[in-house]
UniProtKB/TrEMBL annotation:
Assigned protein family: Belongs to the CorA metal ion transporter (MIT) (TC 1.A.35) family.
GO cellular component: plasma membrane
Residue stretches in coiled coil: none
Bilayer disposition of the protein: Multi-pass membrane protein
Membrane-crossing residue ranges in chain numbering: 641-663, 683-700
Gene3D superfamilies from the UniProt entry: CorA soluble domain-like, Magnesium transport protein CorA, transmembrane region
Region feature (Disordered): 1-26
Main location, first listed in the record: membrane
UniProt biased composition (Basic residues): 1-14
Source domain of life: Eukaryota
Keywords: Cell membrane, Membrane, Transmembrane, Transmembrane helix, Transport
Species for this entry: Polarella glacialis
Annotated protein name in UniProt: Magnesium transporter
Protein location: Cell membrane
Length: 702
């Protein structure tokens, strides 16, 4: 800020034409404005800011000494000083000479008058100011916070049947009390016409819609709404039937401060009608029959974080505190008038998309039905500028297992649906996030889902810890930087998913190749089984889903950077370009990993073919060895049979002859009947004959 102020002074000094003074000092002599100190102006206009630590020190550090220097600061410079919205508005009005009721006073006189006021205007109550139809605005502010009044009025209002049904199955699923078979599909939800029959008809409180309805009711009432009966007829057309006229009369008296004469003269004003309608809707959502708060507020699903450059406050709301949040407004944190603890920037986080709380947020912040519909139906990653808010939906993917960097275990991925609602430029003072289970992820994601511990709130805890740091850059900037930070965190998780798959594929590739003893050596590890190929094919399908998420995320970031007024003068575009570059790199990596899966599949097929060829060759060699062994055995058997045959051929005739001549046949006298037995040389003849028989096989055997 000091550099900006010094640059302005330097341009004023070297400029050929003198720069005109601010409107507050144009009618005064140049020397008179120098006598006023900037600290005196701050003490008179914003005494609460002077009491906060660091404001005056920052003022002196930035060389803002005179009132003229203070008047040259713009809205962003005052925010850097640590001033709230109301304080910045009052200083700017004083610098431009627009302070109501003091237009006829000189700056010195005005500072004296402001210093003597009993209660300086440091919040949004705007006391002692006449407003709508001559009625004080503090009555309207008080009526907004009167929860008992609106709970009593809304006790007889029935929730529409269609909204009750939607509430049951949406709340049951988001709270984890119902199984997947009890949750209807997106098609069934769309068939119920959420937007047309519920959101647009009963919960559309956008400024354009309220203005259209109000002026239509005024025309129907004959020009002005002056009675509870006319208001009751108008509310019945908006889905708030069966509200007693006596109760509405009480609400009108509270809102207008009991100014019946002014109501008869000017009628009910638009702001008063918005308060009555919005508070009745909130009481319908959060109240119950006995006039107290309902069970929907007895949860810890809603957290609110208010922060600025100097301080930060985190609350988990439930019960009466939650009702005060919805029925109240933010003031200046640390003041006695701060009912719900507010700061220049507010972050509201809703876990699991509780239906009534989401509708209550839509009523409180005047959210557009199109954006609320995107949250309920869990639309894919996109960005839309609807009304006064920027709606961003994200399909958040993160690694739940296999993120050790080594890839030793399969990658497990989980998903949540994150919705970001940021107030549109130029305010950028509120961010609403809704984190809920992704109902379509089980259908889109190939393979089985991991059922381990859910760490879906890790990004929320990380962001809250960063906001608690004293020197956090997030606390120096507006709400759209917080929204960018959430987008950046989701993008980093997507990048981590691609890195986890890269490590896993590297591990699978090493498993395929196996340890080798040297170039050309045969792998000692066998080729992986069929689960290896199944996992590679599954990884390829999962990478296709990750690539789709990366493309949609990248398109969303680019559209957000091109949206008018989103980046502003805070150089947010460079941050968004950095996120887009990371997503582009991760998308290229996912395509590379997909090609790598194809290459691994081809390598696996080649390895399997080589292994099959090796196995066939080994089978052939084994068959050859068996055949050789059988041949050797047959040869030994043949040799044995040959020897036996030779001996048989040699001794069989001799045995026959010996057998024949060995028979002892004799006649009556006892002489042998075989004549050869009586030959004198018969025994020699026998051996000569045997030798001649043995010579024949021996000759043929050689």
């Amino acid at each position: 800020m000091a550099s900006v102020l010094r640059a302005r002074k330097e341009r004023r000094r070297v400029s050929s034409s003198p720069r005109p003074l601010p409107k507050r000092f144009q009618a005064l002599p140049p020397s008179s404005s120098v006598d006023w100190l900037a600290e005196d102006v701050l003490a008179a206009l914003t005494p609460a800011a002077c009491k906060r630590p660091g404001v005056l020190d920052r003022l002196r550090q930035e060389l803002v000494s005179t009132a003229a220097d203070l008047a040259e600061l713009n809205n962003d410079d005052l925010r850097d000083l640590g001033l709230g919205m109301a304080e910045r508005r009052r200083l700017l009005s004083w610098a431009l000479g627009e302070e109501e009721g003091h237009s006829d006073l000189t700056p010195t006189e005005e500072l004296g008058v402001l210093a003597q006021e009993e209660q300086p205007r440091t919040n949004f109550k705007l006391e002692r100011r006449a407003s709508l139809g001559g009625r004080p605005l503090q009555c309207l502010e008080k009526a907004e916070r009167d929860m008992d009044l609106w709970f009593d009025l809304a006790a007889d209002i029935q929730t529409p049947h269609l909204a009750s049904q939607l509430q049951r199955f949406l709340s049951g699923h988001c709270n984890g009390t119902s199984g997947p078979h009890e949750m209807p599909s997106s098609r069934e939800i769309r068939m119920r016409c959420i937007r047309e029959d519920i959101l647009e008809e009963q919960f559309d409180l956008t400024p354009d819609r309220m203005r259209e309805v109000f002026f239509r009711l005024r025309r129907a009432a004959g020009g002005e709404i002056r009675s509870a009966k006319q208001l009751s007829e108008g509310l019945s057309q908006l889905g708030l039937a069966s509200v007693a006229e006596t109760h509405l009369a009480r609400a009108i008296d509270t809102v207008t401060g009991g100014s019946c004469s002014s109501l008869d003269a000017a009628g009910l004003q638009l702001e008063e009608f918005e308060v009555i309608f919005s508070r009745l809707k909130l009481a319908q959502l959060l109240g119950k029959k006995d006039g107290g708060v309902s069970d929907v507020t007895q949860t810890d699903l809603l957290t609110v974080c208010d922060f600025d450059l100097h301080q930060q406050e985190l609350k988990t709301l439930s019960g009466v505190e939650m009702c005060k949040f919805f029925f109240g407004h933010r003031g200046i944190m640390g003041t006695e008038d701060d009912d719900d603890g507010c700061c220049p920037v507010r972050w509201v986080h809703l876990r699991n998309c509780q239906f009534e709380l989401l509708l209550a947020l839509a009523v409180k912040y005047r959210l557009h039905p199109l954006g609320v519909e995107d949250v309920l139906e869990q639309r894919p990653t996109k960005v839309d500028l609807c009304g006064q808010h920027i709606f961003i939906t994200l399909e958040h993917l993160w690694v739940a297992g296999g993120a050790d960097g080594e890839g030793a275990s399969p990658v497990q991925v989980r998903s949540r649906h994150v919705s970001i609602i940021c107030s549109a430029p130029p305010r950028f003072d509120t961010v609403i996030t809704v984190d809920q289970p992704n109902r379509c992820f089980a259908e889109d994601w190939p393979g089985e889902l991991d059922s381990g511990r859910d760490e879906s709130d890790a990004w929320v805890s990380t962001l809250q810890s960063r906001l608690r740091r004293l020197r956090s850059r997030l606390r120096e900037r507006k709400a759209h930087y917080l929204a960018h930070h959430i987008i950046d965190m989701c993008a980093d998780e997507l990048v981590q998913v691609t890195r986890a798959y890269s490590a896993r594929l590297r591990f699978l590739e090493q498993a395929l190749q196996g340890p080798t003893a040297g170039p050309g050596a045969v792998p000692s590890r066998p080729v992986p089984m069929s689960q290896w190929l199944e996992e590679v094919s599954l990884v390829r399908l999962q990478l296709a889903v990750v690539a789709r998420r990366l493309r949609s995320h990248r398109s969303m970031v680019r559209r957000l950077g091109e949206a008018p007024g989103v980046c502003g003068e805070d150089r947010l575009l460079s941050y968004l370009d950095d996120v887009a570059d990371h997503l582009e790199e991760a998308l290229d990596d996912s395509h590379h990993l997909t090609d790598r899966c194809d290459a691994l599949t081809v390598a696996y097929e080649i390895a399997v073919s080589r292994e099959q060829a090796r196995q066939r060759e080994e089978a052939k060699q084994s068959d050859r060895r068996v055949q050789e062994q059988q041949n050797r055995h047959a040869e030994r058997l043949n040799d044995t049979l040959f020897v036996l045959t030779v001996f048989t051929a040699m001794f069989a005739p001799v045995q026959l002859i010996s057998g024949v001549y060995g028979m002892n046949f004799v006649n009556a006298e006892g002489h042998p009947t075989i004549p050869e037995l009586l030959w004198p040389n018969g025994y020699a003849y026998f051996w000569i004959f045997a030798a001649s028989l043995w010579s024949v096989p021996i000759r043929f055997s050689f």
